[in-house]
Every structure is written in structure tokens, then in C-alpha cells.
Amino acid sequence: MEEKDLLLGHMDDLANRAVKKGCAASKFLTPAEAQRVTAHFRYRPDVALSFDGGFEGAERVRAVLQHPGRGACDRAGLFAALAVAYRPRDTLRHRDILGALMALGVGRDTFGDILADRRPALLVCLPELGGYIRENFTKAGRVGVGVSAVGLDALPARTEDLTIKTDTVASLRLDTVLCAAFGLSRTKAAELIAAGLVSLDYILCMQPAKELEEGALLSVRGLGRARLLEAGGVSRKGRIFVRIGCY
Question: Rounded to an integer, what distance in angstroms lies between the CA atom of residue 94 and that of residue 181?
Fold first, then answer.
């Protein structure tokens, strides 16, 4: 069975559980997995699907399936929030915390986003995993850490820190917008797409002529990410005005 079939088959099992018990939730999904799940349940009326990563703007989320009319899931029972403290003279990056958790044998789908750009760092995990992480996560590389439980209200909403570009493009094709976002030549954009280095809304896209819509997120391995914020209006030369946010 293909990987995506395993995911969607598991989601069907959760949906059946929600029908019987009122509520069921997946482990943490990547944005691409969440999109597949959304499409899968688009026409299923017996369960209501929502996503929650523990705080507003989370990228990795749990799919929450509820039987309509049976009330809401206990959101507090879906997550454990943890603070990772360390000495002021030390530095911890996202990859340091991620690597330390993986070294403990913690599956990537059992914890969500890591907010490493603050002190203490914060992370979200399955509630049944919180105690294990607090007891066993004592070092990240050479940096000693102390982990404590915090309430979900301690997690800040994630806002997008973007550098805004305005430009005009001949069309809203993937390759054309890619050139405007990253300052590439048309040839270079085509090479990146053909090499499988470009994702559209977290899903690999190898179609240079793919038409983009407002809100589309472009990811280029090695270059970063950009979002098509706005497209509208035409210049005297027939080109489309666009606003692009670069991460």
C-alpha cells in the first residue's frame, strides 16, 4: 500500500471512531499531509474536520474529527506545551532541539512546531509524551536544558515576518512568479523546477506552467520560501502587478 493510502486509510479509521465516540484526532501532520486529508474529507458529511497545532499559525497540526451534534473535543486534552530553558550564554537553534528529540527516539509525528526563536524555546507534543520529554530531554548537543510544562496560553500566535516585493509578471505561471520572487532567470527557474527542488503549497510541483492563485506558497530548496500575496491590475504593457512576501 502506498504511503498516502496508509495515511488516508488511518484517517478513515479515525473518522469511524469519531462517529462512534464523538471525537478522534490524528498525530501531527505536515502541511502537505493536511492538504491531502482536507481533500479526502471534502465530501464526507458525517464528520467535521478541523486542524489545530496548539496555537494560531502552527504549521504542523493535528487533524480533529468530530461527529456533528456531539459537542467539541476537549482541546486541552490534545496537546502538551513545553518550555525548554537554557543558560543565557548558550545558543539553541531549531535543528538542535529537533535533533535532540529525535535522538530520544521520539517520532516526528508526535510533536508539532518548535519555537526556537525565543527564550525559553517552546514546543508542542502529544499529551502522553510530555512526561517522557520532561524527564529525558536534558541536553541538546552540548547545551544543558531544563524542560517544564506550560499552559497552551503561553504559546504565542505565529506571525509571518515577510519582506515585501512588488513587481510585474507576464503571467501567473509558476516559473514566472518564481523568477520575480527570487530574482531568477527563466532558464534557472526551469532548471530548479525540473530538478524537483520547487514545492507549491508544500507539495512538489514540476509543472512550470502551473497557474498560481493568491496566497500560493512557493518553496525552493536552498533558496527559501515566498508567498504570492496579491495579483491584480495590468500595466500598459499588459503585465500583471503582483505583491510577493519573501521569508
Answer: 25
How many angstroms separate the CA atoms of 48 and 44, rounded? 8
Give which of 103, 136, 137 is closest to 120, Cα–Cα: 137
Question: CATH code at 41?
Answer: 3.30.1370
Amino acid at position 18, single letter: A
pLDDT digits (tens, 9 = 90+) for 126-152: 999 999 999 999 999 999 999 999 999
Question: Taking Cα atoms as reference points, which of 58, 48, 49, 173 lies closest to residue 115?
Answer: 58
Q: Any residues with CB less than 8 A from the CB of 6 and at least 6 apart, and which?
A: none
- The cell for 88 is 543565557
The answer to whether 23 and 70 are in contact (CB under 8 A) is yes
Q: How far apart are CA 163 and CA 14, in angstroms?
A: 40
The answer to whether 166 and 243 are in contact (CB under 8 A) is yes
Cell numbers at 29, concatenated: 501532520
CA distances from 70 to 50, 53, 61, 191 (A): 15, 22, 22, 52
Q: Which of 72, 95, 129 is the last residue of a domain?
A: 72
Query: How big is the CA angle at 12 (ends 29 and 37), to the nearest 5 degrees?
Result: 35
Specify the number of domains making up the chain.
3
Per-residue pLDDT at 86 exceeds 70: yes
Backbone angles phi, psi at 163, to 5 degrees: -100, 120
**What tens digit of pLDDT does each residue of 25-71 get?**
999 999 989 989 999 998 888 899 999 999 998 999 999 999 887 76
Give the integer Cα–Cα distance in Å for 27 and 105.
16
Structural domain boundaries enclosing 19: 3-72
